[in-house]
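Open question from group meeting: does this chain pack into something compact, or does most of it stay loose? Before anyone orders reagents, we agreed to write out a predicted structure and look at it together. Recording both the input and the output here so the notebook holds the full record.
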Amino acid sequence: MDAARRRYLGLVTVAWSIAACQDALQDFPAAPTAMAGDEADEGGDADDPRHGGCGGLQRGEAWSPELVGEAQGCELQAPPVEPEPPEPEPGPEPGPSLPLFVEGSTTFVVLPDTQYYSLRFPGVFSAQTKWIARNAIDRNIAYVFHLGDLVQYNKESEWKRASAAMAELDGVVPYGIVTGNHDYGPSGDASTRETLLNQWFSFDDAALMPSFGGAFEAGKLDNTFHLFDAGGHAFVALLLEWGPRDEVVAWANDVMSLYADRLGILVTHAYLNHNDRRYDHTDDAHPQTYNPHLYGTPGGVNDGEELWQKLVRQHRFVFTLSGHVLGDGTGYLASVDDHGRVVHQMLSNYQHRDLGGEGYLRLLELEPDGRTMHVRTYSPWYDQYLTAADQNFTIELDVG
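Structure tokens returned:
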């Protein structure tokens, strides 16, 4: 497939492999031989999709390539698998397939970190986007936002899988994607700002979208803005790169000033932490892991608190969306901006769950009153949603 294949709009994927690591294997057969290149898509253990031979994960344990590989000193390289959707053990919280959708509501869909799907479980990724496409009309889906880390190691094979999954939305639902730290660098380590994103998602095709407003750099989808009407409001959505540089933040301020009459949505990979506080590298009283300042990404970065001070609090943002964080994979913070308006800041990331996330995504359902928004956490893979208070809640948008 042409690496710059034409697209309607979108972005991402990831793959993993296992080098021979015989000393680490105790309870499982020898690991499969590492495959040449990144295009090995066949194989894997169909009985246990998490089994890679390195580290001996037991059924029911959360799968993580970092934890498995680093614990055993293995280089992770294994073919993806296509697991059947059995009843998980342990599985997601029980509940009906979907909460009642209020007639006339508008839905925004949020796709958190999909890196392990692109790496190991592409079928789960595709199940998410196929469900979105099937329900685009019935649930009045206005936009889909991907929170970054489309892939794990910034490899061609991963981007190929991510691109195929996101292609399910082409011509059906408008969407935008931001870059995460794993989307940058020669091995997804964010040591450079080089990414294969723009080889697999066409800037020219994205620019043809009616909602596409523009980009920070011509020919690159790392930083974009989108203009659309939904739920009785005019929106401007800012989609910013991993650890936005100062010049990107300055550009974002210009965009928000130009469209000051619209409600703002900020989408960026790392903003809120699972302790319900913005990322702040100067806050020693509340230590946080994985702050953008810790990665050495060139060009400088801004974390959540810096984005709040330099951008969000100054404009008419109604909510922010971010991923990146592990922990319990969820967070929420309401803050008052310089104009006395409430800004809802939300984190979601389920990569620490089985199968790299169990297919969970976020549904933001804006009722016909244009203010009441129900936040749902739903898995098309299991046809279930999470019912805990931090996964299923209601907010009131400050649209005044």
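Observations to bring back to the group:
The mean pLDDT is 82.
The chain is about 15% helix and 20% strand.
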